[in-house]
Amino acid sequence: MRARQMILTLCLLLACSIPMLAQPGPKGQFNREEFNAKLEEHIAQHAKLTPEEAEKFFPLFHEMKEKQHELQGQMFKLKREKPSYDATDKDYQNIIMSIKSLSVQMAQVEETYYKRMCKAIPARKVYDAMNAEDKFFRKMFSRFNHENRKK
């Protein structure tokens, strides 16, 4: 269970960092299409996905990420909105339980989609894709940190 929490936490951090890490577009804005194209290229290359496998894998991958992003937004909203001044411990406990419930839902979404991905393409390639995604984000973090040190 602890490993599952660590994986979920890593996924949350990675998903949150997408807008922060992407190169700005012509007007300094995040270009999701360009970012996704780079991510897909990196994953496909490192997981050695054939065009047919990529065609099956990436729609599931992006659908999973979109659902997780939605749940994550709900979690952040709960964390940002402070309860009223006269909130009781029970109110705080309810908020905590709601956040944990959303976290569990995110893990369930991930589990469901990874099972679907493993039916669509070989599990080894799903595993390689997972690792490629992690490497992509580590590289982006590194590049982001390096660029910020120069400023």
Structure description:
The protein is mostly helical and 151 residues long. The chain has a domain at 62-142. Helix content is 83%, strand content 0%. It is built from five helices and no strands. The chain has helices at 2-21, 32-46, 51-80, 89-120, 123-150. α4 (89-120) crosses α5. The termini are far apart. Mean pLDDT is 84; it is low at 6-14 and 16-25.
Q: How are helices and strands ordered from N to C? A: HHHHH
Shape: globular
Low-confidence stretches: 6-14, 16-25
Distance between the termini: 41 Å
How many β-strand stretches? 0
Kindly name the structural category: mainly alpha
Share of residues in helices = over 70%
The averaged pLDDT comes out at 84
Which value, in Å, is the CA radius of gyration?
18 Å
For the largest beta-sheet, the strand count, sense and barrel status come to: none
Strand content: under 5%
Number of helices: 5
